UniProtKB/TrEMBL annotation:
EC number: 2.5.1.7
GO MF annotations, alphabetized: UDP-N-acetylglucosamine 1-carboxyvinyltransferase activity
Family in the record: Belongs to the EPSP synthase family. MurA subfamily.
Name of this protein: UDP-N-acetylglucosamine 1-carboxyvinyltransferase
Organism from which the protein derives: Jannaschia aquimarina
One of the GO BP terms on file: cell wall organization
Entry keyword set: Cell cycle, Cell division, Cell shape, Cell wall biogenesis/degradation, Cytoplasm, Peptidoglycan synthesis, Pyruvate, Transferase
Matches recorded under PANTHER family: UDP-N-ACETYLGLUCOSAMINE 1-CARBOXYVINYLTRANSFERASE
Length: 423
């Protein structure tokens, strides 16, 4: 198993290309199950999560072809040959549970293992199942699998989510597009990933109103067709790399980054001392003079501050002036980076869903380990300006969601390398 070793150093400078969004691409891939015509995705990020989901889709009968060095993916679900998504693959990533809606909509029958994904909370799927039941499916849980069927097809209905769930909104949406009649989804996720999925579905012939808002109205159609769709820029990767010059100093340009996908995040880091400029085809980020200033944050569904950037902000707050209060409201176990940052000299107090971070002059490198994707990257960010060496193990988490992380950071002058665990 590899580790990533970072030597704390000086200012960063240069350009980092931003990849297509993991969480968008995964849901677009699931949507390809809805049609017997090819769906072509461009700007596909090269990540292990993408490979894992492609493999799952292949087990269902989808032909997956990669072109242009993996940047373009053509998915052809001409015939679904298997309606069972196996535990061995589904346990590896949360997004694979999103084959359920499309399988049920097209085949009227599906068996999908309960999912895995980052261990950041209980992550139930009750809202997904309730929504599909509202659309007329019969759902049973047996031996770790969801058995769902709707012999006469799904029927449009009103779905009122009690709170926002990205995955449940997307499963309901991809089921409703082929249901008979009208579906209204209230309290729907407004995340750019969900909106991009809805846009792709409309290109496939779906009828959806209210894209990007909290109420989606879907008029079911008999069939969908193929399309070509470009995956939007990864706002979480963008936010992660924005933190690098804020922590280590310098100025970095993020090519392909879009501020309109992450306004709240940008406003927050500007309040902390970031300067962000729009440049041709991207964003430039630098720290104003002096250390960052502590800011308080509460994670919320979009358009609020994203939970997927909370760990990275915490890394920056470790050396900010003052005390920052970070409240995590989405997941109940998403401070696993805190004890590791403390090992690097950070002052962090966690009480339930709130972490208080009091800035220190400097962190010190240490061997650290994280148990989820964003926690892992926060330790790399912290290492960029820490005194000495930081060794982050269990990097397979990073491979799930960051394409060429080492190369991208090296390209702006970070002293970072990937080594075999015993190397
Ligand atoms: C692959 C993917 O797109 N992952 C993202 C997605 O995860 P995911 O879709 O799993 O996140 P949700 O929005 O569904 O989860 C929000 C909250 O609702 C709870 N919940 C969810 C569904 C359900 O049926 N019952 C229930 O109780 C979850 O445990 C969590 O506490 O959105 C999260 C919130 O922006 C992001 O952090 C993840 O990166
Ligand atoms: C939590 C994440 O992924 P997943 O939902 O696949 O666990 C993430 O991308 O930060």
């Amino acid at each position: 198993m590899d580790s990533i070793v970072v030597q704390g150093g000086g200012p960063l400078s240069g350009t980092i290309p931003i990849s297509g969004a993991k969480n968008t691409c995964l849901k677009l891939m699931c949507a390809a199950l809805l049609t017997d015509e090819p769906v072509t995705l461009t700007n596909v990020p090269r990540l292990s999560d993408i490979t894992t989901l492609a493999h799952l889709l292949e087990t269902l009968g989808v032909e997956v072809a990669l072109l242009q060095d993996g940047r373009v993916m053509v998915l052809s679900a001409r015939e679904i040959t298997n309606r069972k998504a196996d535990y061995d693959i589904v346990r590896k990533l949360r997004a694979s549970f999103n084959v359920l809606g499309p399988l049920l909509a097209r085949e009227h029958d599906a068996v999908v293992s309960l999912p895995g994904g980052c261990a950041i909370g209980a992550r139930k799927v009750d809202l997904h199942l309730k929504a599909l039941e509202t659309l007329g499916a019969t759902v049973e849980l047996r031996e770790g699998y969801v058995h769902a069927s709707a012999p006469g097809g799904l029927k449009g209905a009103e779905i009122d989510f009690p709170f926002v769930s990205v995955g449940a909104t997307e499963n309901a949406l991809t089921a409703a597009v082929l249901a008979q009649g009208t579906t209204v989804i209230r309290n729907a996720a407004q995340e750019p990933d969900t909106a991009d999925l809805a846009l792709c579905l409309t290109q496939m012939g779906a009828k959806i109103d209210g894209i990007g808002t909290s109420t989606l109205t879907i008029e079911g159609v008999d069939r969908l067709h193929g399309c070509t769709h470009e995956v939007i820029a990864d706002r979480i990767e963008t936010g992660t790399f924005m933190m690098a010059p804020l922590i280590a100093g310098g100025e970095v340009t993020l090519k392909g980054a879009r501020r309109d996908l992450m306004n709240r995040f940008c406003e927050t880091i500007e309040a902390a001392g970031a300067e962000i400029d729009a440049v041709d085809g991207g964003l430039t980020v630098r720290r104003s003079n002096g250390p960052l200033t502590a800011v308080d944050v509460r994670t919320e569904p979009y358009p609020g501050f994203p939970t997927d950037l909370q760990a990275q902000l915490m890394a920056a707050m470790c050396t900010a002036r003052g005390t920052s209060r970070l409240e995590e409201t989405i997941f109940e176990n998403r401070f696993m980076h805190a004890p590791e940052l403390i090992r690097m000299g950070a002052r962090i107090d966690v009480h339930g869903g709130t972490a208080e971070v009091t800035g220190v002059e400097r962190l010190r490198g240490a061997p650290v380990m994280a148990t989820d994707l964003r926690a892992s990257v926060s330790l790399i960010l912290a290492g960029l300006a820490a005194e000495g060496e930081t060794r982050v193990s269990r990097v397979y988490h990073l491979d799930r969601g960051y394409e060429q992380l080492v190369r991208k950071l090296e390209g702006v002058g970070a002293r970072i390398e990937r080594v075999a665990e015993d190397g």
